[in-house]
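User: Structure please.
Assistant: Input sequence and predicted structure:
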Amino acid sequence: MYDKERGLYVAHGPNGPISITGRMANRHGLIAGATGTGKTVTLQVLAETFCQAGVPCFMADIKGDLSGISRPGKPSGFIEKRCKEFGMEMPQFEGCPVRFYDVFGVQGHPMRTTVTRMGPELLARLLELNPTQTGVLNIVFRIATDRNLTLIDLKDLRAMLDYVAKNSGEFTTAYGNVSTQSIGAIQRALLALENQGATSFFGEPEFDINDLLATEGGKGVMSVLAADRLMLQPKLYSTFLMWLLNDLYASLPEVGDMELPKLVFFFDEAHLLFDDAPKALLDSIERVVRLIRSKGVGVYFVTQNPIDVPETILGQLGNRVQHALRAFTPRDQKAVKAAAETFRANPAFDTREAIQELGTGEALVSFLDEKGTPAMVERAKILFPLSQIGAITPAERDEIIKKSAIYGKYDTAIDRESAFEILLAESERKTREDAEQKAAAKKAAKEPPAPAKKKSSKGGFWSTVTKIAVPILTTMGRTLGRELVKNVTSPKKRR
């Protein structure tokens, strides 16, 4: 709940309202607690508060129940009781402006990117390629660029890999060695990605990251990603997050600490994100968490145990809400101890014991103050959401999708001419020319040779006579001529 007097009001403690400091909201946060302790409701309360303050939010909806943020809630006896406890009047219940997204395009607007936009380095890290294979992938991208072959979807990349493999000898001098083994390894990695539905993610129209920064009527738009199916495809989920976080970081300018963040990310069930996640994803998230603060973006993780979050990332989360933890196993006991030690101690109670005693809707809360220093931990009660708790119906979701300001912008896929079509046409042309040449050669081989012309025997005889007679006659003529000249010019002998 947001107002100018109390700011980002999210909880109520013994000393009154507890609010997140607006300038520190981009210092990231953690919402943790065992199953059924109220983590998702706390996420919804925080998102609503940011929404009312004009801050757009993005949230991955794992179970589908975050869709209720789009509809007004209803008053209840529990809420009336809480209002009396908090010393506040019954508020006006309302939903938030929401845009639903779905990588598969079923429960929301599709979110796509192109292979070119993702780039070889990010794609190589995602596919867990070794240095040699990464080098080959860079060569493939470079050849595609030099030959104006646009890589939009995975069939473009597959076609390009096949083309380079078949003509590797042509490219060795200019680009370096390209082994068929490396090409095969990349193709196999792409196949695994395709089997998880990545064909839906790569394509056009490309998603415009600026659509996540939208506001409507002075309220921040809630971008809710349907992730129930996506979470079952870990490689695709990793692909999506790596692209989204990196694209967001690359697109936004440096702004430092603002009065309020430009955008807030919520990752519900974050332990699913980090379980068996490729190192590339962990490195990407860590880098973004460290650096994206200066872009005015806050990232909040929601998980069951704080130890589910890698320490390198956990250390960057300044705003914390800790719901109850159960110490039934040695691992649980370790989690309780770790959670208690991350808070600035309050002499009024034992933090470790309090974590195990919290009821539903209660939490240990510690937010950063104006100077960025963690406040003393307080035992508090989380506010109730003003929107609906729980999922909406498919019909209600469909209605919101069709009324969205971006309806039709991404909903129809575009498959324009790109590397696949160009290389296919070139291959068909070459095949046709080869077939025509083979047919011509075959036809020429079947035709009999032209018969040789016989020489006439008469012609042969007279030719021989001519060759013999002409020199003889020529010699006789010359001799006779000399004798006649001699007789004419010489004086006559007297008798």
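DSSP finds 17 helices and 14 strands in the chain.
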